[in-house]
Amino acid sequence: MTVSTHVLDTERGRPAAGVRVELWRGEELAGSGETDADGRIGELADTAPGTYRIVFFPSSPFFRRVELEVELADGHHHIPLLLSSYACATYRGS
What we know:
The protein has strands at residues 2-9, 14-15, 20-25, 28-34, 40-46, 50-57, 66-72, 76-78, 81-84, 87-90. The chain is an all-beta fold.
């Protein structure tokens, strides 16, 4: 099972580069990285199916951390974050 992500700064209308992202399974760090100039991490982790927490650490005047708990099955999962100074949203990407 693989996981990728990207972060889009919807307030400025551009990718959010340099955002730290971590993927946790219980207390074990399964993968981590920083978004590139296009706001992407192409392969955050290659791991087993299960329940995970994906944690984003954006540069924001309000959010210090955005954390999602997700159930991931076999295959590829893309988990994006849309972010502005005072709002965020996510969805299951493809």
